Structures are given as C-alpha cells and as structure tokens.
C-alpha cells in the first residue's frame, strides 16, 4: 500500500480539546435573556489566554456562546455567520430566528458526532424574536433543550443552588446580572479553570447588547488566610 500524506492528513480528527473555555451561565429575565462567561481560555491545565471574548453576536437578535474547545467555537461562529449573511443577501425581509439557529446547531452537532468527529462544545443560543425570549442548549451529541436558565461546565454543579435561591424568570435585568456575578464568584474560588474577569451580554426587543468585560469582586482577607494555621488554632 502506498502511503499518501495528503490523504492521511484529511483523516485526522480532534481526539481531545486543547484550548478550552469554562462555564457559561444564561438566565431568562422579564424582558429577555442574559448570558455570562469568563474571559479565560486554558491551554491544557495552564491558564494561558486571559482576555478572550467568547460571546458572539450572530444576528441582530441572537447571541451564541459555548464552553469547550475554542477552535470549534470559532468554526461554529463562522457557520452561523454564513446563514446570517445568506439571509441578508436574499434581501427579502426574511431572517432566521434564534430558534432556527438553535435547531441548525443541533443538527450540525449530531452530524459531526455521527462522523466520530464531534464539536467538543456545550453550546448556548440566546435570542428574542416576535416578543418571545429564547434560550437553548445543544451538547456535544446534538441533544437540544430549551429552558429558562442554562448552565454548562462546573457551573452545573456549583451554581444551581444559587440560581434556585436568588433567581426567577420574572426578575429584572440587573437582578439577573447580579445572580450571574455571584455564580462566577463561587466558580473563581472553586474551579481552577475559572477566571475573575467575566463578560455579560443580553438580548431584548431592541436586539443584542454585548458589554465590556468586568472583574467580579472577591474576598481573600479571611483570618484563616492571614493567620498561620496550626493544630492549636483548629482545636480552639
């Protein structure tokens, strides 16, 4: 058998994520949907890229964000941008809704999974269309869910209690943002792949709004941190 380097290169698939993003938290509120994600991309176990904006506006009323392999995220952004660009070129006034993007992403993820070359992503699509808010989740297998709140990564373990206690889907935008900030405080302290700089974005009837990254407030001046710990201290 003759070895063909070009053919061999075409058959190579990603077997594990390399540069990865962390948790995503998305909440519905009274007038739309707000999402939050930190700005860190880790190279393996190293916190390497700390100023990466991981929220993409794919249309006037749709935003997309994910946790997982960052290069796969970039590829999905390009695919979704093609759909939006094609709709603009037709110039017939018909544009895909946020749910259309969610359904397309579910089919794309399922196709890649069936080819044993999955998109290593937990995808979140948020939007507002015809007076209705939309929030969808698509996993690595193409499973598609719609909900009033979505968490991915370690936020699924550490943040659901916070969301359950302090959030409801009729809260204001500011209240929803504050819940997300509290969640990322916990993640920064408990998840070694989390960062204390986050970016928020929301979608309402006026369209998508991406905010500048901000640093969450954390507290490190506990007495146990400042004073030397020993057996006597812990037995008092």
Assembly category: single chain
Spatial gap, N to C terminus? 75 Å
How large is the share of residues in beta strands?
Answer: 25-35%
Task: Using the alpha-carbon principal axes, give the shape.
Answer: globular
Instruction: Compute the number of strand runs.
Output: 14
Q: How large is the radius of gyration?
A: 20 Å
SSE topology string: HEEEEEEEHHEEEEHHHEEEHH
Name the helicity range: 25-40%
Which sheet architecture does the biggest sheet show? Answer: 8 strands, antiparallel
In short:
The protein is an alpha+beta fold. Helix content is 35%, strand content 31%. The chain has 8 helices and 14 strands.
List the helices and strands and how they pair.
Layout: H1 5-10, E1 19-21, E2 24-29, E3 32-38, E4 41-43, E5 46-49, E6 55-59, E7 62-69, H2 70-90, H3 98-114, E8 121-129, E9 132-138, E10 144-146, E11 149-151, H4 155-158, H5 160-166, H6 173-190, E12 197-204, E13 207-210, E14 214-215, H7 223-226, H8 231-235
Antiparallel strand pairs: 1-4, 1-7, 2-3, 2-11, 3-12, 4-5, 6-7, 7-8, 8-9, 9-10, 12-13, 12-14
Pfam families: Proteasome
Keywords: Cytoplasm, Nucleus, Proteasome
Main location: cytoplasm
